Structure to design on (470 residues):
């Protein structure tokens, strides 16, 4: 039977004590226990998973790239769309067979999906081999929950404490990053915007900002360690520090003053908070990438109001014009939702018009997915066939725009951070520009994690091709 528990407030000393207990427990074996962390969803989830893995390694587990030989499996879930939840549940369902072979296997399901009561109940009743759950605000409680399941040999289905969900920002967690040159740095958690389609405020809680000193110390350490591409993360990163009268633009300026050879990015921004001050800091910076991800969601003012977005097209375009005035080379990317409840054909045409007016370099487009508990889920839905047709039109339009934005780059030499061998061909390497555009080129292993200069000789809608220039 699963034990129900509301997590207590964070206590750093208590956390260390639990980590020590598990570390001692893992020493009893001649062969190290292994941990596998699987991540679904956004960059914030990726950053959270790095903390889960960091704590597990600190507690004596050895990372593994496959769940088949793991002793601890952590699934970090996403709830932004139903498809993401179903995919996670499908994967969790497959772990039943691994559990059957290893009765001591511990399976934890964490993240946004389990912050919803109906999903926790589903895991409790239909997935009896799941050992524990942890909500988004409770990841620092992993050592406590893990030890209680080890000691009691019982399941533990937990919910976030009110303090964790509204006030606490836990510090001091070890982090096991995915690479030695790109890094995520979470600067705040939660969201206060309550867009009518979005589940995030319900599963990640209210906005909570980290102390400026802690963020600066983390970024300084990353630069010293040789990290080249550092991204500041928040559900609405521009809202950083509002609860303490601290300004995000000021934080960005202080981080930009750090000496070193690196790019500094941030995401995700809300258009209502994209101030001229922030854009000025970007334009005057020496490390801040000239890239701005500014989710539009719809190009129609009536739909934007129904989405509870708190801006209109005039305000959005004003921000875009100011960015391009201050930074003519800026890359602007966005999110678009197709088929929002009640969206008419004329309103969708306004979105296509907005794409042509703004000329986004890249676009992340989504078909609207009802989220239980959000206001939009109760409204009359657009038929799936209509959504699909509009989605295809959106992609066609954006592909034409993206190609037209990339073609002028042919003949130019760009600075690229090399990621390694591309997935398609072993002789081709890939990397990203300051504007976060993918570039393919012939490279060598010593280039991985380093800046290289690439002369562009071919442009596609989604990528650039070129050759290394010494």
């Amino acid at each position: 039977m699963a034990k129900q528990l509301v997590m207590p407030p964070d206590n750093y000393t208590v956390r260390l004590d639990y980590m020590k207990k598990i570390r001692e427990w893992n020493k009893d074996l001649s062969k190290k226990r292994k941990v596998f962390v699987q991540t679904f969803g956004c960059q914030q989830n990726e950053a959270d998973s790095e903390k889960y893995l960091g704590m597990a390694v600190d507690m004596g587990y050895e990372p593994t790239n496959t769940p088949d030989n793991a002793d601890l499996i952590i699934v970090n879930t996403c709830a932004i769309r139903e498809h993401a939840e179903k995919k996670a549940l499908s994967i969790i369902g497959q772990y039943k067979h691994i559990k059957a072979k290893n009765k001591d296997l511990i399976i934890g399901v964490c993240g946004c999906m389990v912050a919803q009561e109906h999903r926790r109940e589903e895991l409790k009743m239909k997935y009896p081999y799941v050992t524990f759950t942890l909500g988004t605000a409770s990841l620092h409680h992993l050592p406590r929950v893990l030890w209680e399941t080890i000691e009691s040999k019982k399941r533990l289905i937990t919910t976030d404490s009110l303090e964790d969900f509204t006030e606490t920002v836990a510090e001091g967690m070890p982090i096991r990053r995915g690479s030695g040159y790109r890094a995520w740095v979470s600067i705040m958690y939660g969201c206060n915007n309550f867009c009518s389609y979005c589940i995030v405020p319900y599963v990640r809680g209210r906005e909570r900002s980290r102390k400026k000193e802690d963020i600066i110390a983390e970024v300084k350490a990353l630069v010293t360690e040789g990290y080249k591409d550092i991204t500041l993360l928040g559900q609405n990163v521009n809202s950083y520090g509002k609860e303490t009268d601290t300004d995000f633009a000021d934080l960005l300026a202080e981080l930009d003053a750090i000496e070193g050879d690196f790019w500094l990015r941030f995401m995700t921004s809300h258009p209502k908070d994209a101030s001229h001050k922030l854009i000025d800091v970007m334009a005057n910076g020496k490390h801040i990438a000239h890239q701005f991800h500014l989710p539009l969601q719809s190009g129609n003012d009536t739909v934007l109001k129904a989405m509870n977005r708190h801006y209109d097209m005039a305000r959005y375009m004003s921000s875009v014009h100011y960015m391009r005035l201050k930074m003519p080379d800026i890359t602007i990317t966005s999110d678009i939702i197709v088929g929002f409840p009640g969206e008419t054909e004329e309103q969708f045409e306004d979105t296509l018009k907005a794409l042509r007016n703004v000329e986004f370099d890249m676009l992340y487009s989504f078909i609207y997915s009802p989220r239980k508990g959000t206001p939009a889920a109760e409204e009359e839905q657009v038929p799936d066939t209509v959504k699909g047709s509009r989605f295809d039109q959106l992609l066609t339009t954006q592909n034409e725009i993206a190609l037209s934005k990339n073609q002028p780059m042919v003949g130019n030499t760009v600075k690229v951070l090399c990621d390694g061998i591309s997935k398609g061909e072993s002789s081709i390497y890939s990397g990203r520009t300051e504007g976060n555009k993918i570039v393919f080129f012939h490279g060598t292993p010593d280039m991985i994690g380093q800046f290289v200069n690439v002369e562009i000789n071919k442009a596609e809608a989604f990528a650039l091709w070129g050759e290394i220039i010494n």
The CA atoms of residues 121 and 157 lie 9 Å apart.
